[in-house]
Known about the structure:
Elements: H1 3-49, E1 53-54, E2 68-75, E3 81-88, E4 91-102, E5 105-115, E6 133-140, E7 148-149, E8 159-161, E9 163-164, H2 166-173, E10 177-188, H3 210-237
Parallel strand pairs: 1-2, 3-8, 5-10
Antiparallel strand pairs: 2-4, 2-6, 3-4, 4-5, 6-10, 7-9
Helix pairs in contact: 1-3
Amino acid sequence: xxxxxxxxxxxxxxxxxxxxxxxxxxxxxxxxxxxxxxxxxxxxxxxxxxxxxxxxxxxxxxxxxxxxxxxxxxxxxxxxxxxxxxxxxxxxxxxxxxxxxxxxxxxxxxxxxxxxxxxxxxxxxxxxxxxxxxxxxxxxxxxxxxxxxxxxxxxxxxxxxxxxxxxxxxxxxxxxxxxxxxxxxxxxxxxxxxxxxxxxxxxxxxxxxxxxxxxxxxxxxxxxxxxxxxxxxxxxxxxx
Length: 240
Protein backbone atom coordinates (compact mmCIF):
# COMPACT_ATOMS: atom_id res chain seq x y z
CA UNK A 1 0.00 0.00 0.00
CA UNK A 2 1.38 3.37 -1.02
CA UNK A 3 2.12 6.11 1.48
CA UNK A 4 -0.60 8.30 -0.05
CA UNK A 5 -3.21 5.58 0.54
CA UNK A 6 -2.07 5.15 4.15
CA UNK A 7 -2.26 8.89 4.62
CA UNK A 8 -5.78 8.96 3.17
CA UNK A 9 -6.90 6.16 5.50
CA UNK A 10 -5.49 8.06 8.47
CA UNK A 11 -7.32 11.21 7.42
CA UNK A 12 -10.62 9.34 7.12
CA UNK A 13 -10.03 7.62 10.46
CA UNK A 14 -9.33 10.93 12.12
CA UNK A 15 -12.44 12.40 10.51
CA UNK A 16 -14.59 9.57 11.90
CA UNK A 17 -13.00 9.97 15.34
CA UNK A 18 -13.62 13.73 15.30
CA UNK A 19 -17.25 13.30 14.29
CA UNK A 20 -17.82 10.71 17.04
CA UNK A 21 -16.10 12.86 19.68
CA UNK A 22 -18.02 15.96 18.61
CA UNK A 23 -21.34 14.07 18.72
CA UNK A 24 -20.51 12.79 22.22
CA UNK A 25 -19.61 16.25 23.52
CA UNK A 26 -22.75 17.80 22.03
CA UNK A 27 -24.85 15.01 23.53
CA UNK A 28 -23.34 15.66 26.96
CA UNK A 29 -24.07 19.35 26.57
CA UNK A 30 -27.68 18.68 25.59
CA UNK A 31 -28.08 16.36 28.58
CA UNK A 32 -26.85 19.09 30.91
CA UNK A 33 -29.26 21.54 29.28
CA UNK A 34 -32.18 19.17 29.83
CA UNK A 35 -31.16 18.61 33.46
CA UNK A 36 -31.01 22.36 33.99
CA UNK A 37 -34.49 22.76 32.52
CA UNK A 38 -35.80 19.97 34.78
CA UNK A 39 -34.29 21.64 37.84
CA UNK A 40 -35.82 25.01 36.85
CA UNK A 41 -39.26 23.41 36.48
CA UNK A 42 -38.89 21.63 39.82
CA UNK A 43 -37.82 24.78 41.66
CA UNK A 44 -40.68 26.74 40.09
CA UNK A 45 -43.14 24.03 41.14
CA UNK A 46 -41.79 23.93 44.68
CA UNK A 47 -41.87 27.72 44.95
CA UNK A 48 -45.53 27.71 43.90
CA UNK A 49 -46.43 25.04 46.45
CA UNK A 50 -44.62 26.86 49.22
CA UNK A 51 -46.75 30.00 48.89
CA UNK A 52 -49.26 28.72 51.43
CA UNK A 53 -48.37 27.18 54.79
CA UNK A 54 -50.50 24.23 55.92
CA UNK A 55 -51.13 24.05 59.66
CA UNK A 56 -52.95 20.70 59.95
CA UNK A 57 -52.24 17.27 58.52
CA UNK A 58 -55.88 16.92 57.51
CA UNK A 59 -55.48 19.95 55.21
CA UNK A 60 -52.55 18.64 53.20
CA UNK A 61 -52.95 18.72 49.39
CA UNK A 62 -52.59 15.62 47.22
CA UNK A 63 -49.25 16.82 45.85
CA UNK A 64 -47.20 16.72 49.04
CA UNK A 65 -43.63 17.30 47.88
CA UNK A 66 -42.63 20.92 48.39
CA UNK A 67 -45.63 21.83 50.54
CA UNK A 68 -44.84 24.21 53.39
CA UNK A 69 -46.19 23.18 56.78
CA UNK A 70 -46.29 24.57 60.30
CA UNK A 71 -47.43 21.86 62.66
CA UNK A 72 -47.88 21.89 66.42
CA UNK A 73 -47.04 18.82 68.46
CA UNK A 74 -44.45 16.98 70.52
CA UNK A 75 -41.13 15.34 69.70
CA UNK A 76 -40.15 11.88 70.86
CA UNK A 77 -36.54 12.68 71.77
CA UNK A 78 -36.01 9.17 73.09
CA UNK A 79 -35.80 8.00 69.46
CA UNK A 80 -33.26 10.27 67.80
CA UNK A 81 -31.96 9.08 64.44
CA UNK A 82 -28.62 10.22 63.06
CA UNK A 83 -27.92 9.96 59.34
CA UNK A 84 -24.23 9.09 59.10
CA UNK A 85 -21.44 10.53 56.93
CA UNK A 86 -22.86 14.02 56.40
CA UNK A 87 -20.38 16.83 55.80
CA UNK A 88 -20.93 20.57 56.19
CA UNK A 89 -18.32 23.25 55.55
CA UNK A 90 -15.60 20.61 55.53
CA UNK A 91 -16.67 19.07 58.85
CA UNK A 92 -18.00 15.55 59.38
CA UNK A 93 -21.29 15.09 61.17
CA UNK A 94 -24.81 13.74 61.10
CA UNK A 95 -28.25 14.87 60.01
CA UNK A 96 -30.55 14.62 63.00
CA UNK A 97 -34.09 13.24 62.65
CA UNK A 98 -36.82 12.97 65.28
CA UNK A 99 -40.34 11.53 65.27
CA UNK A 100 -42.91 14.29 65.74
CA UNK A 101 -46.51 13.73 66.86
CA UNK A 102 -49.09 16.11 65.45
CA UNK A 103 -52.84 15.54 65.21
CA UNK A 104 -52.26 12.08 66.73
CA UNK A 105 -50.05 11.10 63.79
CA UNK A 106 -46.32 10.55 63.61
CA UNK A 107 -44.03 12.10 61.01
CA UNK A 108 -40.24 12.17 60.78
CA UNK A 109 -38.68 15.63 61.04
CA UNK A 110 -35.18 16.55 59.95
CA UNK A 111 -33.84 19.13 62.40
CA UNK A 112 -30.52 19.70 60.65
CA UNK A 113 -26.82 18.95 60.79
CA UNK A 114 -24.87 18.32 63.99
CA UNK A 115 -21.11 17.93 64.28
CA UNK A 116 -19.63 14.52 65.02
CA UNK A 117 -17.44 14.05 68.11
CA UNK A 118 -13.75 13.28 67.71
CA UNK A 119 -14.24 9.50 67.86
CA UNK A 120 -16.74 7.14 66.22
CA UNK A 121 -17.45 5.54 69.58
CA UNK A 122 -19.04 8.77 70.82
CA UNK A 123 -22.32 10.18 69.51
CA UNK A 124 -23.25 13.89 69.60
CA UNK A 125 -24.88 15.26 72.74
CA UNK A 126 -28.45 16.03 71.71
CA UNK A 127 -30.84 18.29 73.66
CA UNK A 128 -34.06 16.96 75.12
CA UNK A 129 -37.06 18.65 73.53
CA UNK A 130 -39.75 18.27 76.14
CA UNK A 131 -43.13 19.95 75.86
CA UNK A 132 -44.96 21.34 72.86
CA UNK A 133 -43.32 22.84 69.78
CA UNK A 134 -44.20 24.06 66.31
CA UNK A 135 -42.26 22.75 63.33
CA UNK A 136 -42.01 24.83 60.17
CA UNK A 137 -40.56 23.16 57.13
CA UNK A 138 -41.04 21.57 53.74
CA UNK A 139 -42.50 18.16 52.99
CA UNK A 140 -40.15 15.86 51.09
CA UNK A 141 -39.80 12.16 50.36
CA UNK A 142 -36.81 9.93 51.14
CA UNK A 143 -34.62 9.79 48.06
CA UNK A 144 -31.35 8.34 46.87
CA UNK A 145 -29.66 11.54 48.13
CA UNK A 146 -31.13 11.31 51.64
CA UNK A 147 -32.54 7.86 52.42
CA UNK A 148 -32.88 6.47 55.95
CA UNK A 149 -32.38 2.78 56.74
CA UNK A 150 -32.00 0.95 60.04
CA UNK A 151 -28.56 -0.54 60.64
CA UNK A 152 -28.85 -3.92 62.31
CA UNK A 153 -25.55 -3.60 64.14
CA UNK A 154 -26.68 -0.45 65.95
CA UNK A 155 -28.49 -0.93 69.25
CA UNK A 156 -30.15 1.57 71.54
CA UNK A 157 -30.81 5.24 70.94
CA UNK A 158 -29.78 7.55 69.38
CA UNK A 159 -29.88 5.26 66.34
CA UNK A 160 -27.08 5.80 63.81
CA UNK A 161 -28.27 4.99 60.28
CA UNK A 162 -26.58 4.93 56.90
CA UNK A 163 -29.61 5.64 54.72
CA UNK A 164 -33.34 6.19 55.23
CA UNK A 165 -35.98 3.51 54.92
CA UNK A 166 -39.22 4.57 56.59
CA UNK A 167 -40.43 0.97 56.97
CA UNK A 168 -37.25 -0.06 58.76
CA UNK A 169 -37.45 2.99 60.98
CA UNK A 170 -41.03 2.15 61.87
CA UNK A 171 -39.89 -1.27 63.05
CA UNK A 172 -36.99 0.19 65.03
CA UNK A 173 -39.05 2.93 66.68
CA UNK A 174 -42.36 1.01 66.89
CA UNK A 175 -44.10 4.11 65.61
CA UNK A 176 -46.42 4.39 62.63
CA UNK A 177 -44.65 7.00 60.52
CA UNK A 178 -45.86 8.84 57.46
CA UNK A 179 -44.12 7.73 54.22
CA UNK A 180 -42.79 11.26 53.83
CA UNK A 181 -40.81 13.58 56.10
CA UNK A 182 -40.49 17.25 56.97
CA UNK A 183 -37.28 19.16 56.30
CA UNK A 184 -37.54 21.46 59.29
CA UNK A 185 -36.05 24.94 59.17
CA UNK A 186 -37.68 26.70 62.15
CA UNK A 187 -38.59 25.20 65.53
CA UNK A 188 -40.77 27.36 67.79
CA UNK A 189 -41.55 26.82 71.47
CA UNK A 190 -44.98 27.02 73.10
CA UNK A 191 -44.62 30.83 73.27
CA UNK A 192 -44.13 31.05 69.51
CA UNK A 193 -40.47 32.03 69.83
CA UNK A 194 -37.78 30.41 67.69
CA UNK A 195 -35.98 27.67 69.56
CA UNK A 196 -32.44 26.57 68.75
CA UNK A 197 -31.83 22.84 68.84
CA UNK A 198 -28.15 23.25 68.05
CA UNK A 199 -28.70 21.64 64.64
CA UNK A 200 -28.15 23.63 61.46
CA UNK A 201 -30.72 23.20 58.67
CA UNK A 202 -28.76 22.46 55.50
CA UNK A 203 -31.33 20.80 53.23
CA UNK A 204 -31.82 22.24 49.76
CA UNK A 205 -34.49 21.08 47.28
CA UNK A 206 -31.83 20.53 44.61
CA UNK A 207 -28.15 19.87 45.16
CA UNK A 208 -26.99 21.34 41.86
CA UNK A 209 -28.65 24.55 40.71
CA UNK A 210 -29.86 24.94 37.09
CA UNK A 211 -27.21 27.59 36.45
CA UNK A 212 -24.48 25.06 37.14
CA UNK A 213 -25.99 22.59 34.69
CA UNK A 214 -26.08 25.30 32.04
CA UNK A 215 -22.46 26.21 32.78
CA UNK A 216 -21.42 22.58 32.34
CA UNK A 217 -23.39 22.47 29.09
CA UNK A 218 -21.47 25.47 27.78
CA UNK A 219 -18.21 23.74 28.68
CA UNK A 220 -19.20 20.61 26.70
CA UNK A 221 -20.31 22.71 23.73
CA UNK A 222 -17.08 24.68 23.95
CA UNK A 223 -15.02 21.51 23.90
CA UNK A 224 -16.97 20.30 20.87
CA UNK A 225 -16.19 23.57 19.10
CA UNK A 226 -12.48 23.27 19.97
CA UNK A 227 -12.40 19.73 18.58
CA UNK A 228 -14.03 20.84 15.32
CA UNK A 229 -11.76 23.87 14.90
CA UNK A 230 -8.67 21.82 15.72
CA UNK A 231 -9.65 19.17 13.23
CA UNK A 232 -10.30 21.78 10.55
CA UNK A 233 -6.87 23.35 11.03
CA UNK A 234 -5.05 20.01 10.90
CA UNK A 235 -7.06 18.87 7.88
CA UNK A 236 -6.32 22.04 5.90
CA UNK A 237 -2.62 21.86 6.64
CA UNK A 238 -2.57 18.22 5.64
CA UNK A 239 -0.69 17.06 8.74
CA UNK A 240 -2.55 13.77 8.83
